[in-house]
């Protein structure tokens, strides 16, 4: 009898092992993408993977950008956390790695997979020699502009080369009864693009590295105080749309897409989001749209080619099935990323895809990123969530007049010294 029971137990165990080998697997993919074209492409890639891997389901989950940032720390502590999450790299990634919730991809990405990316892209997700994420896209921040509105105001975008040129253009545009600049002040980070860009133009890489490494002048040094003074100089002209401090970035993006403002300082993704968030869903026609990089600042040591942007990608959370890693390998094949480039969804970082970019704006930015001697990742990501929040807060406070340049810079330095 004992032998019979033992035999049945063995068969049952064999059945369990066999069953587990063919068990269905669900990979939860949490994203922040809200443009229909990009979501459709992502769904297509997921379905193609599922077709080639029977029993695997890629379950797409969505959170709006601000909600994602706010909820992610709690989400990552949940036993039901998603398997693949979006990342901007930088200090936020470092904090997540420190918390022990991210999978180390160093071994998985060795060889052919790692070779798909340039060193700069891979470095954005490398911490202490270990690779923690899969880079997918690069971005650049600059001024999108409405050609008909600038023409109506008598302003030529090609003449805006310096900060003083921009201030003069703002005055002229406002005098013509047109809102010069759209910005989503409620989200704050869109305004940080002004303060940080000004610091980049004033102090270049050296100023940031000195403050970051705590090896010289900090974030309360002359460069960052001066950046605040220039931002206040702009804000004094009241260049933004009425009620801008109560508008989110999607709302401001739609405001620009509806033709209500002459310019919008935003990343290349705004090409799609300004259309998606416009009342018509179509935004400005390409013929009416233009773009120019952030202007130089008198006396600044930064190079005009220095870029503020990001290298964004995907992370795999700790305890996820191996299929999550395998799916990201599939997502970042040259074929899939070339299609994203061709569709004009973003600027991929996989080698051999930039030439597939048909969007002239994206192509220009890809060239700018390639030749930049200094590529600065967004401060609010690079410095980590806590310090980044202070950067965004003081940027909005500078614009609204709630703080002064020296105090704003001191707040950032104090936060960085305590991080």
UniProtKB/TrEMBL annotation:
Compartments in which it is found: Periplasm
Q: Which InterPro entries match?
A: Bact_solute-bd_prot1, SBP
Transmembrane annotation, as ranges? none
UniProt entry tagged with the keyword Ion transport: no
Keywords, in A-Z order:
Signal
Q: Which Gene3D superfamilies match?
A: Periplasmic binding protein-like II
Signal peptide region? 1-23
- Entries under Pfam families matching the protein: SBP_bac_1
Does Signal appear among the keywords? yes
**Family per record:** Belongs to the bacterial solute-binding protein 1 family.
Protein name according to UniProt: Raffinose/stachyose/melibiose transport system substrate-binding protein
Which organism does this sequence originate in? Answer: Inquilinus ginsengisoli
């Amino acid at each position: 009898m004992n032998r019979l029971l033992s035999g049945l137990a063995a068969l049952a165990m064999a059945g369990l092992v066999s069953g587990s080998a063919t068990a269905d697997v669900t990979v939860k993919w949490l994203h922040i993408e809200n443009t229909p074209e990009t979501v459709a492409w992502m769904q297509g890639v997921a379905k193609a993977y599922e077709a080639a891997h029977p029993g695997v389901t890629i379950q797409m989950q969505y959170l709006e950008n601000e909600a994602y940032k706010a909820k992610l720390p709690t989400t990552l502590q949940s036993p039901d956390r998603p398997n693949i999450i979006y990342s901007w790299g930088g200090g936020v990634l470092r904090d997540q790695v420190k918390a022990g919730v991210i999978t180390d991809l160093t071994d998985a990405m060795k060889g052919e997979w790692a070779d798909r990316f340039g060193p700069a892209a891979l470095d954005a997700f490398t911490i202490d020699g270990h690779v923690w994420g899969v880079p997918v896209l690069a971005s650049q921040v600059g001024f999108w502009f409405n050609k008909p509105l600038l023409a109506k105001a008598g302003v030529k975008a090609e003449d805006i080369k310096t900060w003083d040129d921009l201030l003069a253009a703002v005055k002229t545009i406002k005098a013509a009864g047109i809102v010069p600049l759209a910005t989503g002040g409620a989200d704050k980070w869109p305004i940080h693009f002004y303060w940080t860009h000004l610091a980049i133009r004033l102090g270049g890489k050296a100023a940031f590295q000195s403050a970051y490494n705590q090896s010289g002048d900090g974030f309360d040094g002359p460069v960052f105080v001066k950046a605040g003074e220039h931002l206040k100089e702009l804000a004094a002209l009241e260049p933004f749309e009425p009620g801008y401090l109560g508008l989110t970035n999607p709302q401001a993006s739609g405001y620009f897409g509806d033709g209500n403002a002459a310019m919008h300082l935003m990343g290349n993704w705004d090409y799609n989001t300004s259309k998606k968030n416009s009342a018509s869903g179509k935004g400005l026609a390409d013929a009416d749209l233009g773009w120019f990089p952030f202007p130089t600042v008198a006396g600044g040591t930064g190079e005009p080619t220095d870029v503020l942007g990001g290298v964004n990608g995907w992370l795999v959370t700790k305890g996820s099935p191996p299929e999550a890693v395998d799916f990201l390998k599939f997502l970042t094949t040259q074929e899939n990323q070339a299609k994203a480039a061709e569709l004009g969804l973003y600027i991929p970082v996989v080698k051999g895809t930039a030439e597939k970019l048909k969007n002239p704006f994206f192509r220009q930015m890809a060239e700018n990123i390639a030749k930049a001697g200094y590529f600065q990742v967004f401060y609010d990501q690079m410095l980590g969530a806590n310090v980044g929040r202070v950067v965004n807060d003081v940027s909005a406070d500078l614009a609204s007049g709630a703080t002064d340049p020296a105090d704003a810079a001191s707040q950032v330095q104090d936060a960085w010294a305590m991080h």
